[in-house]
Specification:
With 153 residues, this protein is an alpha/beta fold. It contains 5 helices and 5 strands, in the order βαβαβαβαβα. Helix content is 42%, strand content 22%.
Length: 153
């Protein structure tokens, strides 16, 4: 199985960039991961255009993907439940899980409707850069739970 992560724009804070890179590197030997920070044409960082972001993300979703949108209104899973979700998709021979992380203004309604699962990390609001970090860390945790390593404890 392959995991694709799509999010508009670059991670701006260096400390988050380093943390994301660390976990992307850790995941490298556990799963095929395609982590994409997508440049949105004509985007203005001061006033992001959610429609342009939405179009850019929609165009990059791999065919036949199981799509998961990160959405504050979505379903909450514990780390153990998230690991089981990943394992279930592997057993179902899902070729690709595509995670969508919105920009500062969130995901468009079209992207939310496109999702097979709306996933919430918390009822709190996080920056999209923090959501990127939380996602790669939780993916790493999910795979270490599957392997039975001590990371999860």
């Amino acid at each position: 199985m392959k995991i694709t992560i799509l999010s508009p724009g670059k991670t701006k804070k260096n400390y988050l960039r380093q943390a994301i890179d660390d976990f992307v590197g850790r995941l490298d030997h556990l799963v095929r991961l395609d982590y994409q920070e997508i440049k949105v044409r004509g985007a203005n960082s001061r006033q992001p255009d959610p429609l342009k972001e939405g179009e850019a993300l929609l165009a990059r979703i791999p065919d036949s993907s199981y799509v998961v949108s990160l959405d504050i209104g979505g379903r909450s899973l514990s780390s153990l439940e998230f690991s089981k979700f990943i394992q279930d998709k592997e057993q179902q021979a899902v070729a690709n899980i595509c995670f969508l992380i919105g920009g500062p203004v969130g995901l468009t309604e079209e992207l939310i409707r496109r999702a097979d699962l709306r996933l919430s990390f918390s009822p709190m609001t996080f920056t999209h850069d923090m959501a990127r970090f939380l996602l790669v860390e939780q993916l790493y945790r999910a795979y270490t739970i599957k392997q039975g390593t001590g990371y999860h404890k």
